[in-house]
Every structure is written in structure tokens, then in C-alpha cells.
Write a structure and sequence with these properties.
mainly alpha
Length: about 90
């Protein structure tokens, strides 16, 4: 799919589960607990093995949060950057 001439690729492996997101958002859960669970999910899914750094060249991760402070896209970037020995260059817009 392309939006505004930009290719969009949906990657559910980089998203939290519905129950995880509900516990944090709708039930006003603790960010630290959410972060720990989500990073555990990334490790369980072994996303660092399922994706390659070059797949993220000139990529933009999207999320409903406007800032990276409490956002899963920041957690994905930090997780992959750590797993790939710092090879990922991240800029928050």
C-alpha cells in the first residue's frame, strides 16, 4: 500500500498485543510495567532475527503517540539498536 507516494508496510510483530495495550491505555496501567512486558514480547518474538537493519533504512515507524517518551516505537528502536550493536540510527521527529 502507498500513502502520499510513500510505501506503507504493516508489521504486527513490532506492535504490542491488544491485551497489553488495553492494560496500559484503557486501564491506566503503569508505563514501567508496560515497557517491561513489551520488551519481553520483542525478545520472545525474536524480532532482531526476523528483520534486518537495512529494512529500516529511510523508514519511519508510526504510532498514535505524538512524542516518543511513552511510545512503543521508541521501545522497538531501542531494542533493535541494542540487539544490532548500535547499527540503527534513530531520529525522533
Amino acid at each position: 500500500m502507498k500513502i502520499g507516494g510513500i510505501e506503507y508496510v504493516h508489521q504486527p510483530l513490532l506492535a504490542p498485543t491488544d491485551p497489553m495495550l488495553k492494560a496500559y491505555k484503557k486501564e491506566k496501567g503503569d508505563w514501567g510495567t508496560y515497557e517491561e512486558r513489551f520488551l519481553g514480547l520483542m525478545a520472545e518474538r525474536e524480532v532482531q532475527k526476523r528483520f534486518k537493519p537495512e529494512m529500516f533504512d529511510n523508514a519511519c515507524l508510526l504510532c498514535s503517540e505524538d512524542k516518543p517518551h511513552y511510545c512503543h516505537r521508541r521501545l522497538v528502536c531501542e531494542y533493535l539498536k541494542d540487539e544490532w550493536n548500535g547499527v540503527l540510527d534513530v531520529h525522533h521527529l
